[in-house]
Each structure stands twice: as C-alpha cells, then as structure tokens.
Amino acid sequence: MDASGAEPSAHLLEEIHAKFIATAPKDGLSKDKLFFLVEQAWWYYEVNKRRALRILPACPELQ
C-alpha cells in the first residue's frame, strides 16, 4: 500500500518481482542485499506510479 492507501496492481507487482527479486542471485543473498532490492523495487514503484498518474490522470485503474 502506498501513501495514498492504494494497493499496487497485480501487473505492477509481477513486473517488480521480475525486475528485482526473480533476477537476484540466490547464493549469497544476505538480508542486507534483500533489503536493498526491496528498496529499489519501492522506488521503482513510486516513480512509475507518479509518472503514470501524471500522464493518465483519468484512468480509473490507476486510482
């Protein structure tokens, strides 16, 4: 859930998983590295959602 209380879409969660979690090396994945991946995914979500809301403000799926 983001600051506005909206849940991310399933498509966006799948994209984040594919870009950050699924491609991470399984061996040597420490808690610190996992935290860093989650942080990268968070910022990816925040930046892309804001861009989408600015470009497509009338799209009900983004609200």
Automatic annotation (TrEMBL):
All copies of domain mRNA decapping protein 2 Box A, residue ranges: 12-51
Gene Ontology terms for molecular function: hydrolase activity; manganese ion binding; RNA binding
Database matches in InterPro entries: DCP2_BoxA, DCP2_BoxA_sf
Highest taxon of source: Eukaryota
Pfam families referenced in this protein's UniProt entry, alphabetically: DCP2 (PF05026)
Protein's name according to its UniProt entry: mRNA decapping protein 2 Box A domain-containing protein
Organism: Gonium pectorale
